[in-house]
Structure formats: structure tokens, C-alpha cells
Amino acid sequence: MAKVLAHMRLTAGALALAFVVATALPVAAQQPSSVNPTAAAVKEQQLLQQLKVIQGRGSIPDVKSYVLEHPAGREWREYRTVTLKWIGGIAILGILALLTLYYLTHGSMRIKAGRSGRKILRFNVFERFVHWLTGVTFVILGLTGLNITFGRSLILPWMGASTFSEWTEWGKFAHNYISFAFTTGVVLMFLIWVARNIPTGADIEWFKSGGGMFGGEEPPAPKFNGGEKLIFWLAMLGGAAVAVTGYILLFPFYGTDISSMELAQVVHSTVALLYVAAMFVHIYMGTIGVEGAFEAMNDGTVDVNWAKERHALWYEEEMQPGAAQGQAMRPAE
Amino acid sequence: MARMKFLCDADRCIECNACVTACKNENEVPWGINRRRVVTLDDGKPGERSISMACMHCTDAPCAAVCPVNCFYTTADAVVLHSKDLCIGCGYCFYACPFGAPQYPKVTNFGSRGKMDKCTYCAGGPEADNTKEEYEKYGANRLAEGKLPLCAEMCSTKSLLAGDGDVIAQIYKARVAKRGYGSGAWGWQTAYRESIAT
Q1: Is any Cβ of chain A less than 8 angstroms from the Cβ of B92?
Q2: Does some domain include residue A102?
Q3: For chain B, which terminus, N or C, has the lower number of CB atoms within 10 Å?
């Protein structure tokens, strides 16, 4: 009996061996004489040409680290260190040069009839609060933002590395947190003024005559003339663009990756610099550019003659019997 | 002076992650930060390759170019280092870096990232060599002791090479010539604007 079992075991073993050899032989026959294990290997140059990002798999929890290479950072660098500075420099210095040239050749827009001595309410206290909330925060955001773009070349050399670094860090936090007050201001401004800033045919007439800024008569304008409406919409659209892109940057990796944050930074800084340039025009018009204009945002009232000359349609509207502000007219102090 | 570089021979890397661990240990890298990592491409497919990647210490480094406070500097050995005293944690180097090297102790909102941390090529920071302050902020300064970065020094397959660029390029070329294949010096074209002709 034992002999039979041993024989069976031997037969089974031989069969198994024969099976293994038989199945392995075709595999061995397929092996080429020399092995090139990189034949199918991924090639860096090929990947870089095909993809913007080379990504793989890693074994540490930080999923972001599975990106091996992201050469697009080089393009963003070019934008930040060269392109943006040209855009900002040309826009801001260009606007300042044009304003200076205009002021030197045309001077302020005077109240032609002189001051009447009677004043009319143009902006109530809430409107002024919203304006200055937006304006003051805009200046802080603008200065701290310009510092991030131009500070290293313009301020760092004379401020010194550690002082500049400290001021820039404070500036960064100010920029991040004050943005909420600015955004609130933009939203409120939109709500209180959008109805009066819908473009109309009268605005086209206003622009055709250059708003009376280059001689000739200023066409009768409503509460906001064409130029003011333009500034309003620039402030609203610019404000929306910087707010959205800013908050994308403030909350990294919430649905964004490095590429989209780079894009957000490009939009944010380009719009912001053009925004600053546009606001120089607004600040000029609101201060030395137009006599009697600043008062509207200071104590809220303007001279009646100013109102007649600059915003004739609005003045007529205010003088209608029953107009809420018609009674607000009062002698100047 | 040498021009220090890293070179990862992807045909040798076995994805053991010892470089990652050694770096964390040698430099007491803060929790959540990995100055070096291993990325596997085409995982599980024929031709799969793993590459150990960290700061490549670029020629004309993008991080240094975009930094708003100019906190980066390049040493005589061409190692790109930065000052954590000057860093404001803005994240710009992180946008610019092609290799994802700069990291922050906190990935939180409102710009409160903390001071940037990245591979120092085991060369510390601006503080005096091998002082307590330097170690606490930047980790070891092996270069000042005449040693190379630990990740490369203890790589079990000698896949990761550190040292003078010309020397390690020569070693890599000799390897490729001998074995007959090589998938190239990963990251070199991006970091150094040159590749190794094999």
C-alpha cells in the first residue's frame, strides 16, 4: 500500500513539474536577448510638452505634494516681476501725467456764476459714510498692495530689510482683514447708487461734449453725469473683481490649486492697479479738479450755483415741489 | 566653489521614502511639512518610475525673484536659502516654484500661513553656522561640517545624488553608459536650464 502511495506521489510531482515547465517555456521564449527597462518609462520632456503639471502618486498624506513639476510658475514669475510692473507703472504714471497736463493747461473747473451762498444737500450722512468707508479702506488696500508689487524695488533699499519686512507683514494682514470693510462698502454703494447710475442717452451727449472739460458748455446732467457713472461702474466692477479674486487667494485650496491661484493673483493685481489709476482721476475731480465738488462728500452740501452748472437736471428735480430735499436748501454758514 | 545640485536617478529609485524620513529627522522638520517627497509616475503600469523631489536650488530661482521682501539669498555653493526672520508668509514663492518646494507650517486662511519652510540642502540659514538658533529655524547645517545632504548620503540605491553639478552629472552619465538606459535628470531642464546628454 505504501509503495503505491509513494508511486502516486512521484507521478503527481512529475506531472506538476511538467506543467510548470510547459507553461513557463513560452514566456521565456518571448524575452528579448537584451532588456531595456526604460522602453516604456515616462519621459520628462514628453510629459512637460503634453501636460502643464506632472503629477503622480505619493505615500505621504499631503496630496498637494504629489505634483512633481509645475513649470507654469515660471510664467507667473514673468508676469509678477516684469509684466505687472509695466502695466502698473504705465497706468498710474500715465494717468498722473495726463492729470497734471490737464490741470496745467485747463486748471480747475470753476463755478462760473460764482458762489450763490445758498447750499443744497447732495449726499446724506449714510451716503457719505459709505463713500468714506470705501474710500479710506481703498487707500489702505491700495498702498499695501502697491507695496507688495513695487515695495521691494522702491522702498526696501532705503527702509532696510528688517523694517521693510515688518511693515510689509503688517501691511499684508491689514490688506487681508480690511478687505472685508472695503467689500461691504462696495456692496452698500452699489445698493444706494445703482438706480441713479443706469446709463442713459443724456450720458452719450455728456461724453460727446467732453463733459465741458475741454471748453464748451457742459450738457445738463442728472445727479450723476456720464463721467461719474463711468467711475461708479469702474468702481463696482473693479471692486467685484478684486473682491472675488482676493477671497480666492485668502482661502487657499478651497476648490483651487496652484494654477488657479496664480490666475487669481494675475487678475487681482492687474485689475487693482488699473483701479488705482482710475481712482486717481476720481480723486482729482473730487478735489482740485472741480471747484466746490469736495463739499458734497465733506458736509454733504453743494452750492446752488454749482448744482445748476454741473447737475442741472438733478437741481431741477430737487426744486420740484414736494421733493424731499427741496427744503434742505439753507444759507451757507 | 562647487555648484551644488540634486540629481535623482529615476531608474534606481525604489520608492523607499528613506530620504523623506531622513530629512524630517535630521532637520526636525515641523509637523505637516515634507521638505523632500517621492512621487511615483505611472504607478502600477509598465515603465513606472519614482522620483525623489525637493527644492532643486534653481539657477536664477523663481522664488527669490517673486519674493516681495527679498528674503532669499544664494550661497557661494549656489544653494538657495531664505531668512525666516524676513519672510512674511505671503505664499508667492509657493506660486512661483516649479517643484512645490516652499511649504508653510499652517495651510490656513486669511494669510496666516506662518514662515515658509523648504529644503536647505542641509545648509541651515542666515544665522551663524550650527548654532541653536539656526537649527531651530532651519535644521541641520551639514554643509558647514563638510557633509552632503543626508537624503542623498543615505540613499540605499544611490539613486539620489547630491554634490557638485558637474561631478554628479558625470556619475550619472557613466551609469547610463554602462547599463545602457536612463530616463534623464528629472527637473534639471526646469531648474538649471540644462539637461545631461547621455
Answers
A1: yes
A2: yes
A3: N
Domains of chain B: 4-192 (3.30.70.20)
- CATH code of A231's domain: 1.20.950.20
Cell 502618486, located at residue? A57
Query: Which positions of chain B have pLDDT values less than 50?
Result: none
Mutate to test the interface with B, among A47, A51, A57 (most CBs of B within 10 A): A57
Number of domains chain A contains: 1
Query: In this complex, which of B69, B87, B96 lies closest to A77 when CB atoms are compared?
Result: B96
Q: Is the Cβ pair A56, B67 closer than 8 Å?
A: no
Per-residue pLDDT reduced to its tens digit, A34-55: 556 666 677 787 787 777 788 8
Q: How far is A215 from chain B (nearest CA, A)?
A: 45
Q: Which residues of B touch A38 (CB under 8 A)?
A: 11, 47, 181-183
pTM comes to 0.85
Predicted confidence band of residue A23 (pLDDT cuts 50, 70, 90): low
A178 and chain B in contact, CB less than 8 A: no
